[in-house]
Amino acid sequence: MTFFYKHKYILILFGLFASAEVIVNPLGEFPLNDDWAYSKSILIWLTEGKYDIGEWPAMTLFTHLLWGILFTKAFGFSFFILRLSTIISSLIGVLTLFKLVNKISKDELTALLASLIMLFNPLYFNLTNTYMTDVNFNTLLVLSCYFAFDFFQSNRFISLVGVFISSIFMVLLRQFGIVIPAAFLLSILFLKNRRWFYLVVTVCLFSCVLVVFKLYENYLIGSLSPSASYKFSGKINPTNKAFWDAISVNLQLRYSTLLLHILCYVFPFAFIYLFDQIKIFKWSFVLIIISLGAIASYLVFSKEYFPYGNVFINMALGAETFYESLNVDFKNTTVHTYSKAFETIMASVKYLFTTGTILIIVLGVFKLFRTKLNSYFGNPSVFFFLFLFALYTVMLLVTESYFDRYHLPLITLGILLLSFLRKIFRATYKVSFFVLVFMFYVSAFGTKDYLSLNRCKWNAYKELKKSKNIGTDLINGGFEINCWDDGKRSWWHNFLTLDNYKYLIQYRNEKGFKKYKEIEFQRYFPYKKDKIYIFVKEEEDNN
User: What is the biggest distance separating any 2 CA atoms in the chain, rounded to whole angstroms?
Assistant: First the structure.
């Protein structure tokens, strides 16, 4: 009984995670989103013994594939086993986040709330049930932050080494991982003891990370075709005017979406400080900050749709990859699961959460200026998180592609930075846990729907192949089905056209096709019966 009481918060975290996974039921032999490409690389390694990241991925990918290979070597290749590897990685990540926030805040309940808000972030939890790279990257980020914080508190050399081992794995998963050693190097400048010794050591270890990264890229140069999507680091040149022009353009296009997601997703955690804050400050001052925050939110976010992106689009949780979905502009087109009521709710959330987070941050900064600043602004770990936040943001402004899931590291860092406020404010948890219940419902049941839909889609595909004895080239089932192509080495299949396809799987019919079969399934977010259809080309049906 003593064991359960001592570890009650971790057991609650594990229990809620397990409960959500039971709801989702991640079983099923089908890829999701981009993970068909990573799965194909795993399959090639297992069957041919050849390392091949393929033509599709733009990232280094090595660490991600290595993690998947460990599981498939032990249990055999299957999409479920690869999803399971991400689920375990996610569990490691949220448990490490719990430990780190507990170290920062000295409060286990705060650590539990932080971990649950990260876990049941709709983007994070949905991706937990795929073999996408985002969760593995975020887990390594949290591990790096844990080692960095421990080093800055204790000067343990083993923790410094831990930062750079994590950095190597991160940069071999995504090129963005280079921000970890860069932020750590800048933070070393704020050390008070043995600064120059650790600066030299950090420079040497940073150099090792760069050497490993460059050696890997040199290998890819010799193994990838010229048409591959991989983005080589040599093409990024900060001394080139085009580099800064791209940042300037992307900043204008993306800053409001970026801010919106961060402010909204950290709000349930930031909210724990509000009740203590409004006791400290005069009501007139609080009302002024609320008014200014509301005006700022309206001016910056009035044209921004929330939620928007690759994963969370209105009532669809998970990337929509049917032919019909990939040929529309989600900002201007009503998606299949569109709900006016949900849109109204999210519009309210947009303004309430952003205004609330702005208020809490501003009041927190004012309180810091009233207290001894040395414990915060002289703390290298705070600088590490701030530098990491800034450098990762720059990376988002450099990259060509841009999805909501790329924000997860910034949301994680936002939670970590807000954890420091626990030292100066009391926490009130009740309202935040109420919001968490809603996040649990959206994440668990929305992800359940996502897998149920894909299970139906792949069952329809398999039924067509079996009953009609035809190949993938005659069935347009959308992105994953056509690109996976039954595991063939082809890395791309044209799913954005209906030419030469005899069968179509999606929600709505297209010109020249007629309904062949309907497949019903139960949705829970929103709760309703839904259907997808198999359509057949009219002339094919006449034959």
Answer: 82
Assign 348 to helix, strand or coil: helix
Q: What are the helix (H) ranges across 371-423? A: 374-377, 380-398, 408-419
- What does the pLDDT average to over 430-436? 90
What letter represents residue 156's amino acid?
A: R
Beta partners for residue 527, in sequence order: 524
How many whole angstroms separate alpha carbon 399 and alpha carbon 493?
Answer: 24
What is the amino acid identity at position 199?
L
381 in helix, strand or coil? helix
Residues 6+ apart with CB under 8 A from 111: 9, 97, 98, 99, 100, 101, 102, 105
Query: Which residues on neighbouring strands pair with residue 522, listed in sequence order?
Result: 529
Q: Whole-angstrom Cα distance, residue 404 to residue 134? A: 11
Closest to 310 in 3D by CA, of 442, 403, 397: 403
H helix count then E strand count, the chain: 21, 6
Tell me if 191 sits within 8 A of 184, measured CB to CB. no
H-type alpha helices, 49-178 = 62-75, 79-105, 108-119, 122-128, 134-154, 157-171
Q: What values do phi and psi take at 518, rounded to 5?
A: -115, 145
Backbone phi, psi, residue 523, to 5°: -95, 155
Strands, DSSP E only, in 428-497?
Answer: 475-476
> Residue 336 is which amino acid?
H
Report in angstroms the alpha-carbon separations of 425 from 261, 364, 418, 421: 24, 9, 11, 6
Sorted by sequence, the CB contacts under 8 Å of residue 191 that are 6+ apart come out as 152, 198, 199, 380
CA nearest neighbour of 195 among 383, 413, 368, 392? 383
CB 514 within 8 A of CB 345: no
* pLDDT band at 1; cut points 50, 70, 90: low
For residue 535, give the H/E element and its range. Answer: strand 527-537
Other Cβ atoms within 10 Å of 53 Cβ, number: 25
Spell out the residues 6+ positions from residue 391 whose beta carbon is closer than 8 angstroms to its own.
179, 182, 183
Residue 15, both tokens: 């229990």
Tokens found for residue 176: 């963005």
At 488 the pLDDT is 92
pLDDT value at position 413? 98
Percentage with pLDDT > 90 across the chain = 77
Integer angstrom CA distances of residue 255 from 258, 310, 440, 495? 5, 17, 28, 32
pLDDT in tens, 359-399: 999 999 998 887 765 555 568 999 999 999 999 999 999 88
Give me the pLDDT at residue 520, please: 95
pLDDT tens sequence across 442-475:
999 999 999 999 999 999 999 999 999 998 999 9
Distance CA 264, CA 295 (A): 16
Handedness of CA 364, 366, 370, 375 (dihedral sign): positive
Question: Cβ–Cβ contacts within 10 Å for residue 393, how many?
Answer: 20
| 3-state SS class at 503 | strand
The residue type found at 79 is F
